[in-house]
Design a protein that fits this description.
Blueprint: E1 2-4, E2 13-19, E3 22-28, E4 34-39, E5 42-45, H1 46-53, E6 56-57, E7 63-64, H2 68-71, H3 74-84, H4 91-102, H5 106-118, E8 123-124, E9 131-132, H6 138-141, E10 146-153, H7 156-163, E11 170-174, H8 192-201, E12 206-209, H9 215-230, H10 232-237, E13 239-242, H11 258-266
Parallel strand pairs: 10-11, 10-12, 12-13
Antiparallel strand pairs: 1-4, 2-3, 4-5, 6-7, 8-9
């Protein structure tokens, strides 16, 4: 296998795969490179090479040299492909999932199938945007909750993290993401408009921003805050707050960065 570099200096990440007592490089090229391979003395593109050898070219710019697709039955191969689409799951992990299922009893497989089919009955709460099996989720229906306080979160997973504390008794608003111009996620693509409508039509007194401490999180907070402050009615009746930041439990000052220490000092409280 021969690489033809177009004059760029970016390095390749090389791995090796042993087959028939020979070692072949696994290539993860950058778009700036032209990859040429030799098949029986003739030059061919890497895509053609993968097709001939039964390998798979991934959309992420890598070559998957796993040969399970050449030996497994079609149903197993299809299931591995589906599991590989899960975030953070590669072909090897997907393969382990499938072989785990193959060792399970028919009753266990039936339970899994029924659980997967049940996902079709999950809806988005019409009030807060959380996942629910009803039109309005149990949190929004709970009369013991403080409906005058709303925590703005990015994803439903964040709701579960806060609920585990057992300290928060207000309600939520799930944005469904954060503003991220690099990923082309604009304010129109998350539930900011629904939040403003909810603020206008509900007796909400406090809005708590419980978003990630990232550039995307800060950008989203700034955008929503400006929209609320531009509305005289909303800005006069709603208190805007954010969750505190600082040193984690067990953290040491010596290893804390300047931004974390600054936020910790700003958020100090009496003892």
């Amino acid at each position: 296998m021969i690489l033809k570099n177009q004059g760029h200096s970016k390095e390749f990440c090389l791995r090796t795969l042993s087959r028939s007592n020979k070692t072949f490089p696994l290539l993860y090229p950058n778009d700036k490179f032209s990859i040429i391979v030799r098949i029986k003395g003739e030059a061919a593109s890497l895509t053609e090479y993968c097709k001939i050898k039964g390998f798979r070219w991934s959309k992420g710019g890598g070559v998957n040299f796993d040969k399970f697709s050449m030996f497994y039955p079609k149903d197993i191969k299809n299931l591995i492909e589906e599991f590989s689409k899960f975030p953070g799951i590669g072909p090897k992990s997907a393969q382990r999932f499938v072989f785990y299922l193959l060792r399970k009893s028919p009753e266990d497989i039936k339970k899994l199938i029924l659980s997967l089919e049940g996902i079709k009955n999950i809806h988005i709460c019409s009030v807060c945007g959380n996942f629910s099996d009803q039109n309005i989720c149990s949190i929004c229906q709970d009369k013991n909750r403080d409906h005058s306080v709303v925590a703005v979160i990015a994803e439903p997973q964040d709701l579960m993290a806060i609920e585990k504390t057992g300290e928060y008794q207000g309600t939520y608003h799930v944005l469904g993401g954060l503003i991220d111009m690099i990923e082309n996620k604009s304010p129109e693509q998350i539930k900011i408009k629904e939040l403003l409508t909810r603020l206008k039509n509900s007796p909400i007194k406090e809005l708590i921003f419980a978003l990630n401490a990232t550039i995307e999180g800060e950008s989203t907070i700034l955008y929503i805050t400006n929209l609320i402050k531009e509305d005289k009615i909303l800005s006069s009746k709603i208190k805007l707050t954010r969750i505190a930041r600082g040193l984690p439990l067990g953290g040491e000052l010596e290893y804390a960065d300047e931004i974390t220490l600054t936020e910790a000092l700003k958020g100090r409280r009496g003892v």
